[in-house]
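Researcher: I'm preparing a figure for a lab meeting and need a structural model of a single chain. I don't have an experimental structure, so a prediction will have to do for now. The sequence is pasted below. Please return the structure as tokens so I can convert it later.
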Amino acid sequence: MPQLNPADFAPQLIWLAIIFIGLYFLLSRVALPRIGEVIEERRDRIQRDLDEAERLKTETEKAIASYEQALAEARGRAHNIAQETREKLSAEVARERTDVDKNIAEQTAAAEERIAIAKSAALLQVNEIAVETTETIVNELIGATTTGDEVAAAVSRASANT
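Model: Understood. Here is the structure written out token by token.
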């Protein structure tokens, strides 16, 4: 094999060095800068994506904070509305209760007045009934005839003593 011939080693080594140096310059001047550009572009793209993700994360956090604040304000307004409604209903119930109490007091006063009239009428009738009953009892027990005026005077004296 001619490659293994020791006399041909020097030219082979020279050609090896020439080819190696040529490949080195070709790779260092053409291929490696392009590969470096691709790597640099990839690194820049990754950094832009990370920056965009951070910006979007910040915007999302702001949106969430705004949402939570709006939700808290809405809850506060709902609480205020509920409180106002509760107060209005309480005032309305109090007014209705006052009206009902007033109506009951009027009805009670009217009923008491009717009772007083009925009581007076009953007391007048009690005296008449007492006079009639006493007159009948005296007539039946004693057999004596008495006048209504005598019996009425006796019942009045007896009522005054008790």
